[in-house]
## 1
Amino acid sequence: MRRKIGIFLSVILFLTTFSNEDYTSLLVGDKDENIYYSENLHEKHPLASVTKMMTVMVVYDHIRNKDISLEDRVEISPEARSVGGSMIWIAQGSKLTVRDLLKATAIYSANNAAYALAEYIGKGDVDFFVQLMNQKAEDLGLGDEVEFYTPMGLPPSMTGKPMDRGTALGIYKLSLEALKYPEYITIASLKEDFIQDGTQRIVNRNKLLSKENGVFGIKTGHHSKAGYNISIAAKRDEVTTITIVFGSPKEEIRDKTVADSLDKFYDEYHLEKLIDTSKPMIEIEVVHGKKDVVQGYPDEEFEQLISKNWGVETRKTYIKSIEAPVEKGRILGSYQLIVNGKQVKEGKIYAAESVGKEKFMDKFKKIF
């Protein structure tokens, strides 16, 4: 069950720790679409190379559908070699595997690699590939949140196309989709790798992979119109989060905003088992039974991210005594789980064992 959580006070206290000049948009959420901190999450912003998240996923979709393979060798066109911005070295007339081009795109954010992949899948038509990007956005329900015009995210002055744009909310949801591509996350989490038969070293643009505990992706982005953007996936204590920052004036400020956001979140929130089926919830007197009491257990386990400042209460409704016999699995009562003043779950309480009706000799044994 998805639980949408709004924490007004926490948001206010959280955001006051940052200057309004540190970013234009900020979002911190978990993998279940619960958003904990946000500012300007619906405002569209230039994406820069964060655009390449969608590029990579569209390529992996074609690999999954067996339209192409990782070992396919792609001829790099003059147009791809000259797109500008961040690029890997490619000799004229050379061919690179789809695997190497994906690594170059996801790790080094190479524009020529992203363009070459788009050309390959679009059979020379990059605009067709961009249509696939936007169609996937529509399929994910993100048609109003993101708009793609290039596979790279370069500014209009370099592409002659409109600006690739998106909201923090849209990129958060796109990042959640990226987590469903383990092959993508595997390469996005690499601090460095080698391509072209080990002859070219590529270093990840995401410096937080080396600096911040638990970070394992996903994509950075920057150009003069966008500022410094990032989508960060992190996992600590079995809790996965996505942090989106748009529009920071400097890379260092962006990365510090992410690091501080993660530290504050993991300091305040923790995953706790709130309903435990291994522990009895109630104990009821059994009248005329072979045993004096029967224990009742909850129907299913339940865990949730909770703040250290929240109250947790389990309200139980049940009879105080029951006449034997009692069958295992009999409903003895119900419960409501209240977290931070709101009911988040309700369920039944069942008898953990059968208790038979006592016979005359059972009464005699109790006396003596």
## 2
Amino acid sequence: MILNNKYYIMRHGQTIYQKENRQINYFADENPFITLTEEGREMVEKTAQTMKGAGIDLIFSSRYTRTKETAEIAAKILGIEKINYDERLIDINLGVFMGKPMEDSHGFYLKGETVFSNKPEGGESWSDILERVKGFLDELEKQYQGKNILIISHADPIWLMAGYLRGFKKKEDFLKARADRENSYPKLGQLIFI
């Protein structure tokens, strides 16, 4: 896939949920209590420092508190005044699994060939997320030329975006690359360059 822009895709920094290893799914709506920890802010600062010479032109972010904080820290370090928030970058909506132990949703989602189509009541499938991030990226590719774009989001949207930008076309491409660790879940504060 030939791209018009360069993409820097970053996962938000650590929150109290990750610090305390809370195995509970986030709620889909905004939760003002899920903010970055001090360690989370430090990891974001460190990652943003590595991008200082990249000439970032634009920042796009999910609107959730943890990603907003991440975007604000990065923007300050990179000298970017405006952050663009886009609904297509929000975290997966786990529907009936919100507020429940992660093991409940893992068993539901990670079922072999149906992994992309499994959709909990009131929630999203990986195919749903892929469609929304594809629309977002296709729009950026049409709207901008030669830009260095920082995108701040969450694990599921990020690994699907990264696979799409790497030219994956079929579900099997995504799953094989993930199994081979070529396109795995990003770590907290991790930056992926495409």
## 3
Amino acid sequence: MAKSKKAYVARDPSALGRMVVVWLYLRIASSAVSLFTDLFQFQALSRFPADTPVSMTETLPGMETADLATGLSSLLLLVTLLVSGFLTLKWIYRVTMNSQTLASDLRVSPPWSIGWFFVPFANLYKPFQAISDAWAVSLSPESWRARDTPSLLRWWWGLWLVASFLDNASFRLQLRTHQVSDAMISAGLDAVSDALWIPLCLVLIRVVRRLGAQQAEMLRTTAFS
């Protein structure tokens, strides 16, 4: 017997989108603070010889203030990352779910629009497909396949891939940091990543607002047609 397709119920993404935007602005603020502390950390480390031994459990002389500032900014960054990330994933599920009520044969189901983020290699393009399809459906449910992917989405996804790569590279380097030169490279990568997260969040805010508005309007139109 053929497996029945799950029926989804459309929900206006506007309120959720506004929450996402608020937390993305907070993410921008925390990234700016973290960028400042990364540069402070880099400058403080530059006073030591490159081969000076370092440890994650011990603080170098004179580095107390820099380490404290970095620790506090990292905590702030983690909080905004977790909340904004959760809300963004919830929003992605919402807009892909709504797309399922407007069109058929979409490439990514609502659950997998989230799940693919956690699958190696597939996470490089499958979540992008989900949002690209949702964008096209929000403009033309009947002929969404003929729609080109806008440059706004490509910019968002490109920035996301680069920022994610830098975050991962910095984390791996921190795990095997043994001397000041390693710590400086890690701080430099963190600074570049934090700087990149600012335009990334700004572009994502625009995506959330535009796609949310397009989809809300399409849902109203189909409801009265």
